[in-house]
Amino acid sequence: MAKCEKCGAEVPEEELYEALGLKVCEICKLKSASASSPSQPCG
Ligand SMILES: [Zn+2]
Known about the structure:
Helix content is 23%, strand content 23%. It is built from one helix and four strands; from the N terminus they run E-E-E-E-H. The structure holds zinc ion. Residues 4, 6-7, 9, 24-25, 27-28 line the site of zinc ion (ZN). The site of zinc ion has 8 residues, from helix 1.
């Protein structure tokens, strides 16, 4: 088991992803991906 460095959730290593240099769970990965989206449609 590995631990998400963002929310602290324990997840299997195969479900751990790297985002912003951190090992994070899938949920945090998706969140950071949508948060740091380079091109957001605005209007
Ligand atoms: Zn997480």
